[in-house]
Amino acid sequence: MPLVSISNAQRTPIANANFAATIHHGLPLDLFKLNAAPRGGYLSFLGRTSPEKRVDRAIAIARAVNLPFKIAAKVDHIDGDYFRDCIAPLRDPPRIEFIGEIDEKTKAAFLGDSLALLFPLDWPEPFGLVMIEAMACGTPVIACDRGATREVVDDGVTGQVVNTVDDAISAVPQILALDRASVRRRFERRFSASRMAADYLKVYRGLLRSESHPTPRHLIPAPA
């Protein structure tokens, strides 16, 4: 069975599978709007408070650069003990603020008013949708070099891929100086829903025409 991966990194555990293509995720261009002049003055984290997401690293980065930090995160039942024992004690309102899970409408304002998104994960993330959600708002991303982050973040344009907390701390001044309109333009070029849909259609049409996957004539679409 032909497979489509959402990143090249996602293929690693099953490298010998029959991959037809890698197609990165995309978003509707009107889902998030560019915020060229964020008013929040904070760094942000959006996701789950699970050990592999490393919210503790994000807190350490924010403290080191002396910027407020807001955590919009879901606490699943399985991660309750981790949150209580490892994350909750690090809260220090208003500098380190946990605001909990947020809805889609609130997400746009939360990411748009953020100076930068911190994504210091510690697992092989297959894509990381929140990174392109931030970019859609013009918000740059600082992400650890795990999984697909190098496929998503363009160093020096939409953010920075780092290896350590110290690297992330050092990168903050340069990342905050990035042109947010350029971040948005790169998102539009690489991660639109229309680009994603066109890529899938190209794969499907190729498979329909492939001799190795014969298709009854009545199922082959007529030329446009």
Report on the structure:
With 224 residues, the protein is an alpha/beta fold. It folds into two domains: 3-26 and 192-219, no CATH class; 42-190, Glycogen Phosphorylase B (Rossmann fold). Helix content is 35%, strand content 17%. It contains eight helices and eight strands; from the N terminus they run βββαβαβαβαβαβααα. The chain has helices at 55-64, 80-87, 104-112, 129-136, 149-152, 165-176, 180-190, 193-209, and strands spanning 3-5, 19-22, 42-48, 69-74, 96-98, 114-119, 141-144, 159-162. The chain has a six-stranded parallel β-sheet with strand order 5-4-3-6-7-8, sandwiched between helices. A two-stranded parallel ribbon has the order 1-2. α1 packs across α6 (165-176). It is globular. The chain starts with a strand and ends in a 15-residue tail after the last helix.
| Helix fraction by DSSP (H/I, runs of at least 4) | 25-40%
Instruction: Give helix and strand order, one letter per element, not per position.
Output: EEEHEHEHEHEHEHHH
The tally of helices reads 8
Query: How are the strands ordered across the major sheet?
Result: 5-4-3-6-7-8
Shape: globular
Tell me about the largest β-sheet. Answer: 6 strands, parallel
CATH superfamily of the largest domain: Glycogen Phosphorylase B
